[in-house]
Design brief:
By secondary structure, the protein is of the alpha+beta class. 15% of the residues lie in helices and 28% in strands. The strands form seven sheets. Strands 6, 7, 8, 13, 14, 16, 17 and 22 form an eight-stranded mixed beta sheet that branches. The chain has a five-stranded antiparallel beta sheet with strand order 4-3-2-1-5. The chain starts with 18 loop residues before the first strand and ends with a strand. The structure holds calcium ion.
């Protein structure tokens, strides 16, 4: 077995070891793998050979759920074993266990029971508030006291590369009655999603100190939005059809263990949060994020936004503690989105709504095209990575193309 050649700027060095579900032509059964450089490692095969000390069985599943439910001690043990197996013991690996990425088809990694989306970026909430309600009412009175969220739709969470069909719906018309049409304000939202590993019993909240132990890992998430539908429908119960038609995620779930060295202090929280949301540990993450747009006429994508997860006002632990404070039970594989992650500068805004200021400042694309919102044939891609000393913990990408209304 030759030594695996890993490019220094790969998203997937040995420090990463994310988990995903894949199949091959030779073995079309979806199963769990990890990624190392340009290879996928078949973990069901390693498990069959008893390389993890004991047989787990869950790597032969077509989702990560049973592995996620096994708990942090097991996740850590498996990660430590994998570092050894793919490092110093690499030479003893069977060649069938290592599959070139171009031979692999990725599958949706998790059976998501419930999906919740938060609204945790102060910059994003302020920008949207100004546009929808005016400067005086930008941040609602509750915003600095709790991480605002809503229960989303799990069935339309889709894997990266799945096309998105432009939705139709009601929106404000010119006269007194609404109009029914294909959305003219189709948008992306740059987010990070986090998956629940071990859940909690109904009636028993997850405390802020324990919250991070329940989180298995993160993916890139694009929460597609139809702004004209949203503006007409959102009061009084929040978004509904404007956000239920598609939410794209990246295929590799990057673990909390891999992200641990990239914790950073989040923004100062003033007023101080109530005790159930008060954390004494460093709970932000330094994850550089980037959005590119490529129209049907362009031959290469153009970067339109650069942001970072460290700007989030509320931490993912606070989101989880808040979500469960009522006793709401989370289950393995539940997905939470952070909400659009906008940075403090004009080139770090996480949606077209903000980048173009609701269409007032169109984005210039090469070849003379401009964009206020997304057009049919546009492809949006998001990337994310943590920069270590001489290595990167990357997320790969989440991408999708817009197709015309049916
Ligand atoms: Ca969102």
């Amino acid at each position: 077995m030759p030594f695996i050649d890993i490019h220094p700027d790969t998203d997937f060095p040995i420090q990463n070891l994310p988990f995903g579900v894949f199949s091959t032509i030779a073995n079309p059964r979806p199963r769990v793998g990890t990624r190392l450089g340009d290879f996928v490692v078949d973990l069901s095969l390693l498990d069959d050979e008893n390389l993890f000390g004991k047989r787990h069985g869950f790597f032969a599943d077509s989702s990560l759920n049973r592995f996620m439910a096994s708990g942090r001690e097991v996740w850590r043990e498996i990660r430590q074993r994998l570092v050894r197996i793919l490092g110093e013991e690499q030479a003893s690996l069977k060649k069938e266990a290592l599959i070139s990425i171009d031979q692999v088809q990725m599958h949706f990694p998790v059976n998501i029971g419930d999906y919740t989306d938060f609204y945790a970026s102060r910059e994003h909430a302020t920008n949207v508030g100004i546009m929808f309600r005016g400067k005086e009412n930008a941040l609602m009175p509750n915003w600095l006291h709790l991480p605002v969220g809503y229960h989303g739709r799990a069935s339309s969470v889709i894997l990266s590369s799945t096309d998105v069909i432009r939705p139709r719906g009601q929106m404000k018309g010119g006269g007194s009655s609404p109009e029914f049409a294909a959305t003219r304000q189709l948008d992306f939202e740059l987010e990070v999603g986090f998956f629940i590993g071990t859940g909690n019993e109904l009636g028993k909240p997850i405390s802020i100190d324990k919250a991070d132990e329940h989180i298995f890992g993160m993916v890139l998430l694009n929460d597609w939005s139809a702004r004209d539908i949203q503006a007409w429908e959102y009061q009084p119960l929040g978004p509904f059809l404007a956000k239920n038609f598609a939410t794209s995620i990246s295929p590799w779930v990057v673990t909390m263990e891999a992200l641990e060295p990239f914790r950073v202090r989040g923004p100062e929280q003033d007023p101080a949060p109530p005790p159930y949301l008060k954390a004494d540990f460093v709970s932000g993450f330094d994850i550089a994020l980037e959005v590119t747009l490529q129209s049907a006429r362009m031959d290469a994508p153009q970067t339109i936004s650069r942001s970072n997860m460290k700007h989030l006002y509320w931490s993912i632990g606070q989101m989880l503690a808040h979500h469960t404070i009522t006793g709401c039970n989370m289950r393995p594989g539940d997905l939470c989105g952070t909400g659009t992650i906008s940075g403090p500068t004009d080139d770090g805004l996480g949606s077209m709504l903000e980048l173009t200021w609701r269409g007032e400042r169109p984005i210039q694309l090469p070849g003379g095209e401009t964009r206020t919102f997304l057009q049919d044939g546009d492809t949006v891609a998001m990337k994310g990575y943590c920069q270590g000393n001489g290595y990167r913990i990357g997320f790969g990408e989440v991408t999708a193309k817009i197709l015309p209304t049916l």
